[in-house]
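Dataset card, provenance and construction

Sequences and ligand SMILES were collected as paired inputs. For each pair, a complete structure of the chain with the small molecule in place was predicted and serialized as structure tokens. The example below shows a pair involving pyridoxal-5'-phosphate. Curators did not alter the output after generation; any descriptive sentences attached to a record were derived from the structure itself.
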Amino acid sequence: MRQSFQTELKQLSEKNLYRKLRVLEHHEGTRARFEGRELLLFCSNDYLGLSRYPRVVHAARKALETYGVGAGAARLISGTSEAHRKLEEKIARFKRKEAAVVFATGFLANLGILTAFAGTGDVIIMDKLCHASLVDGARLSGAALRVFPHKNYKQCEALLKKSKTARRKILVTESVFSMDGDLADLGELIRLKEKYGALLVVDDAHGTGVVGESGRGATEPEGIAEGVDVIMGTLSKAVGGLGGFVAADKVLIDTLVNFARPFIFATALPPMLCEAAREAFCVIEEEPSLREKLWENIRTVEKGLKAAGFSPASAASAILPVILGDEKKALDAFEALLSGGIFIPAVRYPTVPKGKARLRITVSAAHTAEDIKKLIETFNRFKKTGL
Ligand SMILES: Cc1ncc(COP(=O)(O)O)c(C=O)c1O
């Protein structure tokens, strides 16, 4: 038995797909020590640096005194506190929807959405590059899963046309694609969902706090929040903590509370994290300078990488992948950058398709101009040595 697991792991290793945990010491957000080396991190999703932001930390500390460490039970037992109610009201206002509900993680929120809204006899139509939690939610739901090529909305329409007899049609996309950093065309998806009577679910995990005039996410532009039926997001990226959320009409939120098993059967998000997240949303609204700094950093990194001869996709978010293709090449590049004091993990299959391994650079408002200079200098140096 043990042997079969060892064989599987060995096979992974041979394909350069083996993963191991790396313990970072003295972690300070954008800096850490690893194996005795001081490193600059360009890999976190803490895009605004809110995980350590004084206002957010203070809110968490205060809540810790009031509520303790954990919620003690699932939401429908005794796990719902004032902190949950206030956070959900805040999120609903922030996302301009009638109501919201929080889950213990974003992964669970996606499992909850798709298993509660779809079942046997329904069809889920999804962009090929959607996150594993959406794919797993679709599989678990029992609905038929149909996938269209990345952002190919003609194919998406063809699938909607073919699904006329389905009881429900659920159209699913990410707003900012987590491994490519590009944006979905939400206007076109709204047009399609209206034409074919589908329910549109948008995962705004990497958009919230980063894109939109005031950081409300990809659904901020006029008419988009109204057109998207279900806005999902996480509290674990730009919001800086942990947890998932869904904002939608009251009837849909009530459906999740009653049918989403990851909501019903999992212990509630700790109130301390709810309070931290609520403060983080206030910071996003009240301190636009953080987002401005983030975008200044994103543009500097994009420009620097291009000048160094790399071709990241045009910056539409805080995610700037440098696609290297071969898994071994990506691992070698990771090691080379590490020896230069920069930590950017090699993202490989199954996170991205086979042969599309990449360095996934993520930028934060917490990076200084010096940090970015060092990143670009390191890329320049390694380009010369054949990265
Ligand atoms: C697009 C997307 N959706 C959902 C999730 C899951 O969110 P969480 O990390 O909060 O569980 C992630 C995180 O990796 C993600 O990138």
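Derived descriptions for this record:
The pocket of pyridoxal-5'-phosphate is lined by residues 105-107, 110, 131, 133, 174, 178, 203, 205, 234, 236, 244 (CB under 6 Å).
The first strand starts at residue 31 and ends at 34.
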